[in-house]
Amino acid sequence: MSLASKNLLACGLFLAVAQLAQPVTGLELTVSTSGGNKSSPILYGFMFEDINHSGDGGIHSQLLQNNGFQGANPGLTAYAPIGNVSLAVDTENPLSSAITRSLKVTVPPNASGKVGFSNSGYWGIPVNEANYTNSFYIKGDYNGDVTLRLAGASSGSLYASQTISVKSNSSSYTYVETQYPVKQAPDGNNIWELTFDASKVAGKSLNFDLIQLYPPTFHDRPNGLKPEIANVLVDMKGSFLRFPGGNNLEGLTPATRWKWNETIGPLTSRPGRQGNWGYPNTDALGLNEYFLWIQDMGLTAVLGVWDGLTIGGPSPQVITGDALKPYIDDVLNELEYILGDKDTTYGKLRASHGFPDPWPLQYVEIGNEDNLNGGGPSYAERFTAFHDAIKAKYPHLTIISSTDQYLPNPKPKGIWMDWHTYSPAGELVSMFNKFDNVDRAFPYFVGEYACISLDNGTELAQPIMQGSVAEAVFMIGMERNSDVVKMAAYAPLLQQYGGYTWNDHVPNLIMFNNNPNGIVRSTSYYVQQMFSVNRGSTILPVESDGSFGPVYYVASKTSDNKTYYVKFANYGPTPQPVTVNIPKTETGRLTTLSGAATAANTWSSPNAVTPKTSNVSSADGAPGKFTITLPAWSVAVLAVE
Ligand code: AHR
Q: Which of 43, 436, 520, 552 makes a 20 to 30 Å CA pair with 543?
């Protein structure tokens, strides 16, 4: 029997005894300081895929859009001519076999002065006081100055200007890299410009490719993450990273799936792809960059691998039978690249890319949402084929199915199952006890969840307090069952304000733009943070004199038995007094997030709802007794010692 079911039984008995003496002060809880179940140490974490420009134009730090003309039909997106030149996408002068298109800048005869082109970034460029690194490839006969500038798109204010001497020729590309100081801009409405001396190219053309602009990066990694966004994740103290999707793993066709081997090595050898979310992916944030992200944040990797199911493209959407074999081999190669010694074929390749040591990997998920989009009927066959091949070579790996349906019967021992929900608030609350009675032999990974609407059908374009409290209720249900719910992640994680592609009626955890401090931590972000930061290692039995709702709770303690946590959600419009008894504790703190049901953190009011922390002490003469009031629509964590 699960701890949650035992608690319910204990609660029922206690209720029967206590009914006559129902306290007027509200719910009274007594936390047992012993017993209980071990909680998963990696319960809270991150699900990431490039959606809403969360990667390119988001957490990845390269700032210029369409810098390698990748994807299905990039055109001249983000580029504009400067002076009397014409711009075109050129396929005659490939930079490499991967980067096959370039920007051709044609200069008319008798031209003079400075000409060139600009790039408007991803809905602007963040221009902050720092040294930026700028590079590009140039082909064509040129020997003279090139000026690189960052300027306000509307204001024309200049924030950086660097003139360098460039000598290039028409037989091959020349790589140019420079660094320059950048002054602070008041907002993100900025463009980048490259100009050269028109008189030296009059009547001819120059080609440019793989143009890159980097601010300082998280942990100073070349081709790294944007610190502003990465640090918001650090503050959440998540434990794992599921990547690279989500639907963006799947591809519109098998050929356009996320291909691990096209995301590694120098950027010149990464062709990019047309992602599933309607825009090209550069794949500069590739397999090794994901593992560096994991390393730098101390996370556990959850690698999604492609399993034959595509989404959104032409039929057939599913590959089965013998036709799957090359894709299974491809996954084994990927795993050898990640886990193999440097004397293996792919381990050697990884070492040649600068990573001699294998990456730590324990969890591999087979596909994404194979219960949907026609994947169900063949999933047992496909799952078994990938599972068996991976386990034969890497028996220590934990294999996660992408659904708890359509699995082989019996299920292979040791597998975990991914389960997703995007639900209205009330439905999420009603799933509080979803995991109370599931088979403990097959753990769950709740790989994606969010409250996306209210019960009357109102869709939420961003998290609001009522939805965030509903998520907290669901999370309390998961934490009470975290002997079997091993990991859980809100999704989607990030949204570039200009590049909303998921669905403009669906919320995201963290929104950002290019302005200084242009980040909005949603009410749901703060719920995730409060739950993640305050984690015990054992979930404790709790006796209660009332039933769940509108107040929901879960108690835990740390492994040193010193700190006790009680997490609460008040899913209702009325404040709720609660008395909590935790023997042998005296003092601590109470962190509360609350607001009107519709309260939200927005661009105009990013800090409308933030957690507030106060010190608490047990009542005089009643050690271990804490009396608190949960405001209407609130989430709270009591942490006492
Ligand atoms: O999180 C957005 C999408 O929702 C994911 O890519 C997919 O797995 C789910 O359907």
A: 43
